[in-house]
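WARN no homologs supplied; continuing
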Amino acid sequence: MSDAPSRTVHVPRYFTCEQRLAERLARCGRQMGFSATAGGAPPAGGAPPTAEETSAWQRQLRSEVWRLLGMDAMEPCEVEGVVTERTLMSGYLRERVEVQTELGVTAVAYLLIPEGMTPGERRPVVLAPHGHASAGKLSPAGRRDIPAVAETIEAHSYDYGVAFVREGWVVLCPDARGFGERRESYSQGDDEAHFIGGSCWQLAHMALPLGLTVAGMWTWDLMRLIDYAAKRPDCDASRIGCAGLSGGGLQTLYLTALDERVTCAVDSGYFYGVRDSLLVLSANCDCNYVPGLWLLADMGDLGALCAPRPLLIETGDEDTLNGERGLANVREQVAITRRAYAALGAEERLRHAVFHGPHRWDGTEAIPWLRQWLTRM
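OK structure emitted
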């Protein structure tokens, strides 16, 4: 051991406010939550909500979530896309497109187009947003030719965009703001950590004081990409799916909750109670935190905004993001969502698929789920 004197002193006790904030969430949270207990039972002494009451509640909460995300502060523009490159892959064509989604803001995405399409044929569209440690669009789009991307694909089964195009769907794999070709100044560079990672913290620091949020900007861009897809001759805008892992699950959840053009969705690795998974696990990424949201709703309430459209929630039973109570934390939120589906007579359109494993995409039930709903509509 070194004989050098210590430059610090031991702190024997810390006076934190973590417990107080958790108590505040329990006391003040979910003020607009769907009228059910965490276990999904009707309120004591009250009748279950009717379909009309459920729809009215959805409209009210959807409006509030829209406001909290900062969607009213976004600056609309004409949505036009430019295809900058085309690469023929095995079984599909990969296009790189640039789409202006807001004044002065350009989204970059890969568009995967299945082979064998005839002129004038329109196919279902699936948005495949990515999460963290993805190099943006490169992982869902299956860029295994890049070693760092190949490694993260293997770790998280991340190339679900390729799985979707092999089903015969047109697939959009966008860079979310702050990732891939859209990284902000402090995260740019070709070293592996910056290349794989993102700029959520920098975006949040710049956006929050301006009344914007990372989740809101991501949601806005996905909505504009739907606008772009609707203009293409190969996309059927009446059949739009969205499916993503982790931060891609976050994007899927908010998009589906707010944009009813999404006809079916798969939320993988992002569905749990906020107390366990975002307040206690408060070192999670800045993109998870929307000012004022927890006062109004928990994640199960956001899921309830997706009803009655088909929603599959995919959860790994060893996913540490579920929090210290694990699946119990997830199932409480699924129960809230399930009650809204029941009120709208659509219980068969909600499924919770639990697989054995850590935080990754599984797809065992997700692919058949998307196939079922995208082909029947």
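The domain at 86-260+277-316+335-376 is CATH 3.40.50.1820 (Rossmann fold).
OK
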